[in-house]
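User: Teach me something about this protein's shape.
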Amino acid sequence: MSHKFCNFIKMKILRPYRIISCCFFVLTCILTFSCTKEGSGGKSSVSGSVRHHETLIPNSTVYIKYNATEFPGTDIGKYDASVTTGADAQYQFKDLRKGDYYLYGVGYDNAGAYIVTGGIAVKLKYNKTKTINVPVTE
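Assistant: First, the predicted structure itself:
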């Protein structure tokens, strides 16, 4: 084959395939990283306690809403997961992705004999553990 023919093949036939391959790779990366959203499957976590003022509220339930910065409401069906605290009033959500979350706590204050509720927004970073107390009031 002549030198000119080889150059023609490289320039006219092989170059478009390289461009297409590069575009496909870039598009795949963009879609992969932009489609990840808050929720399970990550390396971050949030933990803490449920407190009414400074009093621990044992045996309470903490709900978590993914991709939320504001209170989603009292309908627990709108939340994505929940945990029940023990006698120490401690909760933990592990294996979360970076992003925005809303924590909502519901418990019973034995000292005042009433139900207490409340919540707080949390922003998690990649591969970080955050300690956040969930404030509840009557």
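Now, about its shape. Confidence is low (pLDDT under 50) at residues 26-35. The helical segments are 3-34. If you'd like, I can walk through any region in more detail.
User: That's plenty for now, thanks!
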